[in-house]
Structures are given as C-alpha cells and as structure tokens.
Specification:
By secondary structure, the chain is α/β, with parallel strands linked by helices. Helix content is 39%, strand content 14%. The protein has 15 helices and 16 strands. β13, α14 and β14 form a beta-alpha-beta unit. The two termini are 15 Å apart. Bound molecules: 6-O-phosphono-beta-D-galactopyranose. The site of 6-O-phosphono-beta-D-galactopyranose has 14 residues, from loops. The site of 6-O-phosphono-beta-D-galactopyranose (BGP) has 14 residues, from loops.
C-alpha cells in the first residue's frame, strides 16, 4: 500500500465560505463579503465592481455562511469522529486586522482562532492554515486599491507576523495564498482588484507580483518565528490536454499550463521563467520591480506545493472550437468527449490527478499536498433525512486511487484534504445547493433552514478510508 503512515488525511474549508458572523467579534468587511448570490456575482469576482457597499436588495452568502463561527465545536467534533489527521482552514485577515492597517490586531479575532486551533489540537487534528483565501479587508481596497499597491506587501507581512507569533506553538503547516493563479482570472476575489477594461493585464500582473513578494516575506518571517513550520504555495491545478495531436494544439495546451506555473516557479524555484518575462515585454506589461526584490524571491522559496484539483482542462489552437466549452474551476475549458461532467459542468478525470501530480513533481521536486478535491453536487435527503451520496463516494474514491498511483510512481504526497468536507457556500456561485460535504448542512441558498449537521453516507465511507490509511476505498 502506497500511503505513508503519517499521511495527512482530512478536509478543507475557507473562512469566508463557512464562518459567517461577518461583522461579529470585531471583524471588518472583507472583499468576499461584497459578493452577492446571483447574476452579479461572477462579473464582480472578475473585478467589474462599482462600489464598496452591500446592495440592500441582494443576498450575501458569506454573511451567514454555515455559521462555523458559532458551531465550530460541533463541527470539529465531527471531523474528529471521521478520524481527520488534519484540517485545512483559512484565517480571515479582516478578523485579525479589520481595516488591514489598524495599529493593533483585533484580540477577539485572535482569540476565536485560538479556540478553534486548541480544539483541533485536543482532538489530534493538525491545523493547516491558509493565510489568505480569497479575502482582503475592504478598507484596503478603498484606501489603496488592494494588491495593486505595494503597501499591501508590508501590511500582509504584519498580519503574518501577528499570526505566526500568536500560533507558533499550535501550527506547523501554512499556505501563503490560496490558488495564486486565480489573481489572473478573478482579480477581485483573489486580490481585491477592480478592473475597468483599460489596463487589466497590467493591473493583474502588478497585483500578483505584489502577492509573490508578500509570499516570500511570509516565508522569511516563518523561518524566523517558527523555524520548524512548513510553508507552502498553492496552485489551482489540472493538466491541460491538447485537443488533438496537432503540434499547434500541444503548444496551446502548454501555454495554458505555463500561465500558472510561471507563478509557482517564482515561489518554488525563486525566479520568473524567461518565457513569462518575454511575454510580458511583448504585451508592454511592466512588473513593478524594486532593487532587492529578486534576492527576496530567490532566498525565500517554499517547502512544498499545495494544489487544488477538480478536473483536467482541454485546449485547442482552433478558435472555432469555442462553442464546445464547459465550466471548470473558473477556467472554462473545451469539452472532453472522453469524460463525464458534474452537474455544474466540471469534467471528472481521476487519471488527470495522477498526470497532474507527476507533471508537477517532474517540474519541481518538492512534496505536494492535495489540499482541495471534491464533487459539487445536489443532495436530496430521503424521507428519513438520510443522504446516500454514492456519486460523491465514487468521485472521491477514484481520485484517491489515482493519487495512490501517483505516490507509487514516486511523487511524495503529504496529504489529502477533501474540499468542503462539510457543506459550505460555493465560491463561484455562492450557492448552498452546490454541496461538496460529507456532512450535510440544512440550509438553502438564502441561508434558510435549521443549520443542522447530518452525516451523509460518504461520512462513514471516508471514516473507513482514514481508518485503513487508504487501503479500503470501497
Ligand atoms: C477553489 C477554491 C475554493 C472552492 C473550490 C470549489 O477554487 O479555492 O474556495 O470553493 O474551488 O469551487 P466552487 O465553490 O466554486 O464550486
């Protein structure tokens, strides 16, 4: 059996998708708190934002989410019951620094995460902390233009210093930015950046450049404050296949993957790849580089690569193929005739996970942590309230098998955390009905319902997977 004894089995969430209590406990407004349910959500996520206030007519899913803020004890007990070895969660920056540049951190926010971490540790669950999962204090956006402004690097470093100092005896695993490549696709969600169609590419690369600097600063700080900690970067991964064996298609697919790799190259290898610098130059995009930046990036590379994997992607050089698109994790992609799709159009490709893991390890030779994988589906409880989610079990089981194969191929995989281990709100659509969980949360898209937590069939299945260290996937 391929899984090492200390393999980190667990589940993952993000603060803004589970906590709720969006202004409680001294928390400030985060950029994600301005994402409504409905048609306006995606354009806003892409940066087409016009204001910094909530529309009183709209429903904002993050404000209540699944109220982990008040239910964390019950929720962590459920993780423990499943036998979780780790829990990947994020800290909301705006809970610690409500305005992002406050002179002092918010003690109530810090104390909340102390309680969560303490309970995880008491149950033998290793916390894996994402420092920034799609949120920036709104005040920083209003005041400075968020990640477009270099001052964010300094402010993020202060936030990290506070987090590392406070939790240094509690946390061993960190991730700097969730899915760093999302800044190029959803600049508002990933970087708090608004775009107006004039200089969008420049704005996105400026923002992501600052995030890369901030990531290196976080690594440098972690080495000083918690030298034993392992700190990683993260890619929204999923190999792009060429639609045909035409060399033009192969090249197109390679370009798509290199867009994300260019960023993880910086975080893992310490330098920008020459192809990116050439492309930026051609497009007239300038990285806002200052003396000392190159050294900072070179000297502060990460310990591991975290990835999300939901699906492979497909590309063609033939522009006429665009009618054949389907949805994916933000990246719309060509429909692959060999693959099934989820109810939201995301292609299902377990072998793609093995391919992705091997490709990434061939490139980087650092351990990989699969911190997101799962199936968003509608669940319908039966008359007794039970949920027999065999489709989810089939998805997870096939992906875990593919990951096991990759480990046998020689890829060191640190762990695996099921995305949305309990139902939470969807990042892209804001819906509750797009459920990933092994625990059902009785709430609808508008937050109506009892909020009760109900174990699905997959709950017991995953419990056994963990108990047998992956030997039993049936
Ligand atoms: C990733 C994000 C998560 C998450 C997941 C599933 O990109 O890191 O926050 O939500 O995708 O996406 P969705 O919720 O849109 O189905």
């Amino acid at each position: 059996m391929a899984f090492p004894k200390d393999f980190l089995w667990g589940g993952a969430t993000a603060a803004n998708q589970c906590e709720g209590a969006y202004l409680e406990g001294g928390k400030g407004l985060g950029t994600v708190d301005l994402l409504p349910l409905g048609k306006a959500r995606f354009p806003i996520s892409e940066g087409k934002i016009t204001g910094y206030a909530c529309d009183p007519q709209a429903y904002y899913p993050s404000h209540k989410a699944v109220d982990f803020y008040h239910h964390y004890q019950e929720d962590i007990a459920l993780m423990a019951e499943m036998g979780f070895k780790c829990y990947r969660m994020s800290i909301a920056w705006s809970r610690i620094f409500p305005n992002g540049d406050d002179p002092q951190p918010n003690e109530e926010g810090l104390a909340f995460y102390d309680r969560v971490l303490d309970q995880c540790i008491a149950q033998g669950i290793e916390p894996v902390i994402t420092l920034c999962h799609f949120d920036v204090p709104v005040a920083l956006m209003e005041k400075y233009g968020a990640w477009k402004n270099r001052i964010l690097v300094e402010l993020f470093e202060r936030y990290c210093e506070t987090v590392f100092t406070r939790y240094r005896n509690k946390v061993q695993y960190f991730i700097t930015f969730n899915e760093i490549n999302m800044a190029l696709h959803l600049p508002y969600v990933a970087a708090g950046v608004a775009v107006d169609g004039t200089n969008d590419e420049q704005a996105k690369y400026t923002a992501v450049y600052h995030q890369l600097l901030a990531s290196a600063c976080a690594v440098r700080l972690a080495r000083r404050i918690i030298p034993q900690a392992r700190i990683g970067c993260m890619l929204a991964a999923g190999q792009t296949y060429p639609y045909t064996c035409a060399p033009e298609d192969v090249w197109e697919a390679m370009q798509k993957d290199r867009e994300g790799y260019a960023l993880t190259d910086v975080q893992i290898r310490g330098t920008f790849p020459p192809y990116l610098l050439r492309q930026l130059k051609q497009k007239g995009i300038r990285l806002p580089e200052l003396p000392g930046d190159r050294q900072l990036l070179r000297e502060n590379t990460v310990d591991y690569l975290a990835i999300s994997y939901y699906a492979s992607r497909l590309a063609s050089a033939d522009k006429a193929m665009v009618q054949e698109m389907t949805d994916g994790n933000v990246f719309a992609t060509l429909k692959n005739p060999h693959l099934e799709r989820s109810q939201w159009g995301w292609q299902i490709d377990p072998l793609g996970l093995r391919i992705t893991l091997n490709t990434l390890y061939d490139r980087y030779q650092v351990p990989i942590f699969v911190v997101e994988n799962g199936l968003g589906a509608q669940d319908t409880p039966d008359e007794q309230g039970n949920i027999a989610d065999d489709y989810r079990i089939a998805y997870l089981s096939a992906h875990i098998k593919a990951m096991e194969d990759a480990i046998s191929d020689g890829v060191p995989v640190l762990g695996y955390t099921v995305w949305g281990w309990m139902d939470i709100i969807s990042a892209s659509t804001g819906q509750m009905k797009k459920r990933y969980g092994m625990v059902y949360v009785d709430l609808d898209d508008y937050g109506r319902g009892t909020g009760a937590r109900i174990r699905k069939k997959s709950f017991y299945w995953y419990q056994n997977v963990i108990k047998t260290n992956g030997a039993c996937l049936e």
